[in-house]
Write a structure and sequence with these properties.
Elements: E1 2-6, H1 18-23, H2 25-38, H3 42-48, H4 51-54, H5 57-74, E2 83-86, H6 90-97, H7 103-123, E3 126-132, H8 136-144, E4 150-157, E5 160-166, H9 167-179, E6 184-187, H10 200-211, E7 222-223, E8 230-231, H11 234-243, H12 251-260, E9 265-268, H13 274-282, E10 287-290
Parallel strand pairs: 1-2, 1-9, 9-10
Antiparallel strand pairs: 3-5, 3-6, 4-5, 7-8
Helix pairs in contact: 2-5, 2-7, 5-6, 5-7, 6-7, 7-10, 10-11
């Protein structure tokens, strides 16, 4: 069974999507439509922008979404997922790829998500840190013992967990993790505490937009970040997507569940190869690939 997986923030690079624009009339049409929907020329930033310009949340999230979704559409009949999953932002790409959301609705939600997260980041200084080489339970317990807001946010693969929260609480947590034997505990260059309670204002704002959007029956199950299990009911998908901004991304558990449910190969759709690396850390024997034209 083919699992198709969609990357999240951090996979962007200058020139992303240019091949799709130049080599596919459908790709060009969708990129042009995206410029209209967003109200600015995201294609110019994607194809020619600096790393700094691409790093703005209002650009990064739609850019990665567009690269993934347009690639899946341009692949046409060769794009045949039996199951899909996306890492954080990638979940929205996956929902367009399996027909739950239209291209236009997906992009509009991604744009609103980016703006809402940006606003929440500006409202309170916060950050994230990567903890390597500790069991999940040790990291979770350590977070619970620290004063202030700090939570497990991204379960990326066995031995790699990202924590999220207030700056002082994260700094303290990094010290504690090192004392507990972490190979590394390092602050990440991000503008906010994604997938933590500090994203509650963004969750509320996005919830209203999600509630007002049509969710269709999917062509195949999606393994969502919040539940890690196969979901096909549009109402349940909607509910899980609303919870996603303040809940942890359970990527390790989602990959394990997909394997249990019969996934034999994982194809990453979009920029970079980060997710393929994480899948390999869950099961070294599994076949992984990048989707290409």
């Amino acid at each position: 069974m083919n699992a198709y997986i969609f990357p999240g923030q951090g996979a962007q690079f200058t020139g992303m999507g240019l091949d799709l624009y130049e080599n596919s009339s459908e790709g060009k049409e969708l990129f042009d439509k995206a410029n209209e929907i967003l109200g600015f020329e995201i294609t110019k930033i994607m194809f020619e922008g600096t790393a700094e310009e691409l790093k703005q949340t209002k650009v990064t999230q739609p850019a990665i979404f567009l690269h993934s979704v347009i690639l899946s559409k341009v692949l046409g009949d060769t794009f045949k997922p039996d199951m899909v999953a996306g890492h954080s932002l990638g979940e929205l790409s996956a929902l367009v790829a399996n027909g739950v959301l239209s291209f236009e609705d997906g992009l509009t939600l991604v744009s609103k998500r980016a703006m809402a997260m940006q606003k929440a980041c500006e409202a309170q200084e916060s950050t994230m840190a990567a903890v390597l080489g500790l069991e999940d339970k040790i990291v979770e317990d350590a977070c619970n013992d620290i004063d202030g807001i700090v939570v497990a946010a991204n379960y990326n693969c066995p031995g790699q967990l990202v924590i999220s929260g207030e700056i002082k609480a994260i700094e303290k947590a990094c010290e504690v993790m090192k004392e507990k034997g972490a190979r590394r505990a390092l602050m990440l260059p991000v503008g906010g505490a994604f997938h933590s309670p500090l994203m509650e204002p963004a969750r509320e704002e996005l919830a209203a937009a999600i509630e007002a959007t049509t969710f269709n029956k999917p062509s195949c199950p999606i393994y969502q970040n919040v539940t890690t299990t196969a979901v096909t009911d549009p109402e349940e998908i909607k509910k899980n997507l609303i919870l996603q901004l303040t809940a942890p991304v359970k990527w390790t558990q989602s990959v394990q569940q997909m394997l249990t449910d019969g996934a034999t190969s994982f194809t990453e759709v979009g920029p970079g190869k980060v997710l393929q690396g994480l899948v390999k850390k869950v099961d070294r024997s599994i076949t992984t690939a990048s989707a290409t034209l």
